[in-house]
Task: structure prediction
Amino acid sequence: MEFALDAEQRAWLEEVRAFLAEHVTPELRAELAEHDLELPGGEVAAFRRRIGEKGWFGLSWPVEYGGLGLGPVHQHLLMSEFEYWGVPGPDLTVTSVAPMLMRHGTERNKQEFLPPIARGEMICAVGYSEPGAGTDLASLRTRAVLDGDAETGAWVINGSKIWNSGAQRSTHEWLCVRTDPEAPRHKGISVIIVPIDHPGVTVRPLIAWSGYRTNEVFFDDVRVPATNLVGEANHGWRYITGALDLERGALTNAGDLRRAVDDLLRLARSPREDGVVPADDPQVRRDLARLDADVEAATLMGYEAASMLAEGIIPSVEVSVEKIFTSELRQRIAVAALDVLGPEGLLAHNSAGAPLAGRFERLYRAAPLLRFGAGANEVLRDVIAQRGHAMPSYGR
Amino acid sequence: MRLVPTEEERDLAAMLRQLFADHCPVAVVRGLREPGADRFPKRLWDELTRAGVLELPFAERHDGAGGGLVEVGVLAREAGRALCPSIVLGTLGLGLAVDALGDDALRDRLLPGVGRGETRGVAAVASPWDAGDLAPTLSATTEGAGWRVSGVVRYVVDADLADLVLATALTPEGRTVGVLLRPGDTGRVEQLRTSAGDRYARLHVDATIPAADVLPDLDPEAVRRVALTLRALACVELVGVTEAILDRTVEYVRGREQFGRPIASFQAAQHLVADIHIGLQAARLTALSAAYRLGRGEVATRETAIAVLHTAEAARRASLDAHQLHGGMGYVLETDLHLWSERARELGVLGGGPDQATRWLEREVVDAPA
Result:
C-alpha cells in the first residue's frame, strides 16, 4: 500500500491546481455566488469550455473513445481539487453515463454519444426516480413502447421523472424506463437517451430548501429513434446499478469537506462579533479536532475507492461506506458551525455581513440532500450488510 | 497513492493468518489466562521464531529480514485477529526501539537475539496515559563505570515475561537517556491484576546499570517517533481485533434463528453490522496510513492521533455491539467473545485513547496557523 502521492500523481495535482489558479477568476466566483450554474453563456460556460479544451471531461476514458486514458486516481484527484475550490468540474455525464456507454452501449451508441460528451457539448440529466419510485427505484413506471423495428422504429415514451437535477441546462436525458411490464420488476427495465428538446418533454422546476434547483420532467408521447436505446432492451437494471456505483464514487470525494473544515477552523480562530474566539473554547476545540480526523478518514476512503477502480475492481461496498460516512460528516460539520458561529451563522447565504458569505448557513440546508439522495443511507447500510457480509435480504 | 495491498503484502498476510490459525487457536489464548498457568506461549513462540516473525523488520546485518513498518503492520493486524499473546509484538517493539535509538554496538548485541527469539522484552518509553508524553519517570546519575537508576515505570505490559525493558531516565543535567532494565534484577516488580490476568506491572527501579545498557543522549524527536510508532502499531493490531469481532458476529447472527428466521435478516441487526463495518473502514485506513508515514521517517503526530481516534472508537463500538448481537451467547465465559473485547478495550487505552488523541490533534490542527 502507498499512502503518499507518487511523483506522477503529484505532478498531476500541480497541473490541476495551476489550471484552477489561472481560470478560477473573481468573475467566475461572482457568477457562481449569484447564479450558481444557471447563467447561460456566462463565466461558468467559458470555464467548462476550458476544461473541455484540456480534454479533462474524458480524462479517465480510454484513448480509443477520445479520452486521455488517465485512470480513476487522476480523476479522483481532479474531482477532489475542483470540490475543494468549489467550482463545477466533470459531472455525472462524464463520470457515470459515459463509462456505462463504453461498457454496455452498442457500437452506434458509442459513436453517436461519446464524442459530444467528450467535447462538453452533450450533458445528460439522469432520469431515475419517479414520484412513486424513490429509494425503491425498481418500481418505476415510466413506459417506453417500440413502434416499428429496432433499427428504423421509434420508442414512444410516457411518464414522469422527479429529482431530475440539471435538466434545465442539459441536452439529453439518460432515462430509465419500463419496456417489459410483464417481466419481474428488475428485468423489464431499459435505458434510453432522450434529447431534452424533443416535443412532449416538459421540465417543471422544484426548488429545494438549500436553494438548489431540481426538476420534475414529464414525457408525453415522446418519440425518439429506436437506436437511442442503450445496449440491449430489458437489461437496464444492471446498467443503472453499475452507474450508481460509479456515481457514488464520483459524487463522494472529501474535497468539499476538507474545504469546509479548513474554513471553519479559520473562522473559529478569529473573534466573533461578541468578541469570543471560538477556538479558545475546550468543546469547540475538541469538535474541530474530531472533524479533522473524520475528514482525513473520508479522504482515505476516496483514495481507496479510486485505487480499487484503478485495479479494475468495482468498490460497491466501499463506496456505500464512503457515501454514508461523507454525507453524515457533512451534517456534523454544518451542526458544528452552528455552535462556532452562533447568530452570525444564521445570516442568509449571500447576504451582507454573513461570515464567508453565509457558506455555513447554506451548508446546513444543503447537507440533508446527500444523506437521503443517491441511495438513502439506510438502504446503503442494507447494502453493506447484505453485499458485504452475506446477511439475508428481508424482501426488498 | 495506491491503497490496495500489493501481492507481497497479501501473501505475507495469508502466510501469517495460517500460521496463527495453526499455532494460536483460542485454546492457546485461554490456556495462558488460567490461574497459575505459565503466561509464556512457548510452543507458539518457537513456531513464530522458526517462521522468522521476530526478525521481520531488522536489517540483514542483524540477521533480520529487512522488512519495513508496512510489513510489521501486516503482522500486527494478523496478530490482533488471532489475539496473539502480547509478548510477541512487545518484543518486536523492543527491537524496533533498540534499532531506532541504539548505536551500532547495541544493535549488534541485541537485535540478532530478538530475531531468534532468545531475548524477550518490551519498550516503555512514553507515558501509558499519553504516548505523546515522553517525560521520563526514572532518574539516572553516573556512578563509577555505570549509572545509578531509580524511580517507577508504570503499567509495563508483560514485565514478568521480559528479559529486558527499555525505559527512559532523566539525568541531573536534564538529558534523556535510555536504560535497559532487567525486571527482577533492577528492582521490585509489582504485578497488577486485570480481568485477563496479571499482565501489567509497576517496576520499582533502584539499581546500578552497566554503561553498556544505557543509551546516552537520546534525540527527543527519535524517541517521539518510536513512541508514536508503537502507538500506531497498536492501532493496526486493534484493527485486526475489530475485524475478527465483526467476522465472528456476522457468522453468529447468520446462524442464530429467532421468530423462525436468522437474526441477520432483521434490519436493526444489519444496521448495527453496517455501522461496525463503517467504523472499521475508517479505522483500517487511518491506522495503516499512520504506520506508513512513520515507516517513512515522518513523526506523523496528526496521523497517529487520527488513527487512535478511529481505531479505539471503532473497536469499542464493534465489541459492545457484538455483545448486543450475541446476547447471552457471547456473554458467558465459556464463549469466546469476551477475549476479543478485553483486547479491544486495552489497545484503545494504553498510550492514550481517543480523549488523549483529540488533545494531540487540537495542538496539531486547531492551534496550527491558518
